[in-house]
From TrEMBL:
This is TRAP transporter large permease protein. Its main location: membrane. The keyword Cell inner membrane applies. Residues 11-418 form the TRAP C4-dicarboxylate transport system permease DctM subunit domain. Belongs to the TRAP transporter large permease family. It is a multi-pass membrane protein. GO terms for cellular component: plasma membrane. GO terms for molecular function: transmembrane transporter activity. InterPro entries: DctM, TRAP_DctM. The complex comprises the extracytoplasmic solute receptor protein and the two transmembrane proteins.
Amino acid sequence: MILIAAICALAVLLLVTGFEMLLVLGLPTLVVKEGFFAALPDAVLAQKMTGGINQSLLLAIPFFLFAAELMGEGQIARRLTTLVRAFVGHLPGGMGYTTIGAAMGFGSVSGSAPATVAAMGHIIYPELRRTGFPEKFSLGLIVSSAETALLIPPSIALIIYGWLSGTSIASLFVAGLGVGVVLGLAFAVMVALQARRSGVRGDPRPSRFELWAAIRGAGWAMGMPLIILGGIYGGIFTPTEAAAVSCAYAIFVECVVYRKLGFGGLVRVTERAAIATGVIFILLAMGSLLSYFITLAQIPGAIIAGFEAIEGGPITFLIVVNVIFIIAGMFVDPNSIQLILVPPLFPVATALGIDPVHFGMIVAVNVTLGMVTPPFGLDLFVASSQLNRPVTTIIQGIWPFILANLVVLLLITYVPGLSTLLPRLIL
């Protein structure tokens, strides 16, 4: 217990004093090593850091980040939005449904919520305002809809969870598809209520010619989700191979077919993706080291013993897990949250008989909520910079969607079938 207290106290101290997350993750392990495992050779630390990220599965992350940057810089994101709007834009509040559907479509080829906000926010926000949605609601809807990118495959958050827990990525992707649709439907209910309250109408109903024109215009763009999802679920690609193919396809479509992305744009995209990849992999390396010491200190065993002592079952455990994740999400980014919390909590979950895929969906919904939870939800600041709106205004518009998130979190937590049914049917 002394070791647990030392790691937690030092990590919290570093976090509140403004240290970078790589130091928040790394320094406590070094202090613990010198204080409790001084005989451990220093070379082991380097081996654990490099060995932890030296896995082919993690190659999917830089590939999907690169593909997301390509689509945001080029035309794929815009054409996906046009396609969704052609089918649902004529409904009352149709632009709100378009926002949700377009975010889910973009998320299905990027796996990144910040990339979804950055790529689609400046396209959608003016249209939401033009059709009559209030400013704060529009901002909250854009930021919240981007959360589905962390659930709809190929989710980077699910890839990291699968890497940490050893759970099948394919099973997590299938489960994430179902859970992402549930979250999208919850947001659609919020849109319907707001549209009725504000008297928001839809676009004129499109003709068959206009629908066909939207389908033709987005034909190449639709190839991205078809390649990724069809390839993975059809057993043609592994997630990593699908990520690599998606990059090649995006380069071909944006540079050759649409011809909207020149050499200079390709260089900018590559630079941004490389920086984002470097940040994530540094965190993953530090997380590998932290996970090693958590295992070495037998922290999962201590947590299990504590639950047995208080006779706590799965219901109590999941309540505690949700509270911990919600609080952590207010201050820490989703990747770091998983690196800190999944290694000690996952063995406890499996010991209590909780399905690994079900637990993964609980973790995923919690980290998506953390992306929009004040005061430090990452997507709040991405939207502020992209849309040139104060963070305080975005926070005022986010609360109805946080409530919808919490309802979905409770459903996912205590109705396991929402997470496990699709993987069992498909896989």
